[in-house]
Write a structure and sequence with these properties.
165 residues; alpha+beta; Immunoglobulin-like; five-stranded antiparallel beta sheet; three-stranded antiparallel beta sheet; 3 helices; globular
């Protein structure tokens, strides 16, 4: 019992010291975390994603998009300007077979697009065919800090487009 109390006191002391050294470590549960609202639309030969950063006081950066490979190939989806198609890298910590399987089933576009709070930004991806099936574009965004950074995710559900409607 005494050992348990010593450990608890030590952890509380360490947390208090860290909080004094870096107030950003204090997590307030009532504060809303940054989110990205993503609204897709097809305009000619482009899939446009209107992105709006919400609940943030500073910029965030979209760093990657991913789409099911079969669905991306069906519409001839290409990377938006400033992004490149890049497989998920082997990091030495994850199962290489899982990463190879993920890369065979998904396409990933990597780049950096700045989002400012409340400002709408349009991300435009080239397509060679109008979507005939619904598919999901998944995105990842970060706040850009090396330490104490945040990572967030967003989804954009693309609906089929009927030709001649």
């Amino acid at each position: 019992m005494i050992t348990f109390l010593v450990i608890v006191v030590a952890l509380v002391s360490v947390f208090a010291l860290l909080r004094k050294l870096n107030p950003a470590l204090l997590v307030v549960t009532s504060k809303k975390i940054p989110t990205v609202r993503a609204l897709p639309r097809v305009e000619g030969d482009r899939l446009c994603l209107s992105l709006v950063l919400e609940h943030s006081t500073g910029p965030q950066f979209v760093t990657s998009l991913q789409v099911d490979r079969a669905e991306a190939e069906t519409v001839g989806l290409g990377p938006p300007d400033g992004f490149v198609a890049e497989p998920m890298p082997q990091d030495g910590r994850s199962d290489p077979n899982w990463i190879a399987d993920w890369n065979s089933k998904n396409i990933r576009f990597v780049g950096r697009l700045e989002l400012l709070p409340g400002a709408e930004v349009t991300l435009s991806l080239p397509v060679t065919a109008a979507p005939s099936i619904a598919f999901l574009v998944k995105g990842r965004f970060v706040n850009g800090r090396r330490f104490g950074g945040t990572i967030g995710f967003f989804n954009a559900q693309v609906q089929p487009v009927s030709i001649g409607a």
